[in-house]
Design brief:
The structure is a single chain. The protein has about 210 residues and is mostly helical. The chain has a single domain, classed as Methane Monooxygenase Hydroxylase, Chain G, domain 1. It is built from six helices and no strands. Helix 3 packs antiparallel against helix 6. The longest helix is centred in the last third of the chain and has 35 residues. The chain is globular. The termini are close together.
């Protein structure tokens, strides 16, 4: 049986879907730019615009929470989802800005792996959120959450290899600092994706 809600409350799921779709666009743009090896003004501006759209969507969800008495799922869960989803796109935007600022060649083996993994995680979260309103599809949603967890574990492995290689081969200490920071933000992005997945799993338990 689907989670019951009044017609106006469909907006909560609609806006959460818009958030994840926005993240998918940002992750795809980031991945393409990493593979191209450059973050020019146009690319960074595009990701920044998506990040600002994410902020707007998050604020609109909070505003709806303040104006709605009955919500389809617990208010704190909607709030947690909206804010944590917003954190993901904030981190993608941060990486894009720093890569441009530091003038790094983004087409680096481990950064490409990170970008691909973040892109896959964003898509899995979008699929999970798309179906989470329907408890008949709880198993499918859970599978997407498990995939996000797997990708987060991959991120840990990528970070270890990336930093290990960095200290072995890079002689410029400034470059070590720059790349180490980027790698850590990339891993934190995947950690945040996993946190969203855990929030979704908790909602499934409540409404199972």
């Amino acid at each position: 049986m689907a989670i019951s809600f009044m017609p106006k409350e469909v907006k909560f799921f609609d806006f959460l879907n818009l958030q994840t779709e926005n993240i998918v666009k940002a992750a795809d743009c980031f991945k393409r730019s990493v593979k191209a090896g450059r973050f020019d003004e146009e690319t960074v501006r595009k990701i920044k615009n998506l990040e600002q759209e994410g902020d707007t969507l998050s604020h609109e969800i909070v505003d709806m929470l303040n104006r709605t008495f009955i919500t389809p799922i617990d208010r704190e869960d909607i709030y947690a989802l909206a804010n944590t989803l917003d954190d993901i796109i904030d981190m993608i935007n941060s990486m894009a800005n720093r890569i441009k600022l530091y003038k790094l060649d983004a087409n680096e083996e481990h950064m490409v792996l990170f970008a691909e993994t973040i892109d896959q995680s964003a898509q899995a979260l979008a699929n999970a959120v798309r179906h989470m309103h329907d408890t008949k599809r709880a198993r499918r949603v859970l599978d997407y959450c498990i995939e996000v967890n797997r990708l987060e574990n991959m991120g840990d492995q990528i970070r270890e290899k990336a930093i290990g290689r960095l200290f072995e081969t890079e002689r410029d200490p400034i470059m070590v600092i720059k790349w180490k920071e980027i790698y850590e933000v990339a891993e934190a992005t995947l950690d945040t994706c996993e946190h969203v997945a855990k929030v979704i799993e908790a909602i499934l338990v409540k409404h199972g």
